[in-house]
Amino acid sequence: MPDIVRIVEVGPRDGLQNERVAVSAVVKVDFIKRLAAAGIKTIEAGSFVSPKRIPQMADTAQVLAALPRGGGIRYPVLVPNLQGMEAALGAGVDEIAIFASASETFSRKNINCSIAESVERFRPVVEVARANAVAVRGYVSCVLGCPYEGHVETEAVVSVSKKLAELGCYEISLGDTIGIGTPRQARDVVRAVSREIGVNALAVHFHDTRGQALANILACIEEGVCVVDSAAAGLGGCPYAPGASGNVSTEDLVFMLDGIGVRTGVDLELAIEAGLFIAAELGRPTGSKVSQAVVASRGFKPAM
Question: Per the confidence metrics, is the pTM higher than 0.85?
Answer without folding.
Answer: yes
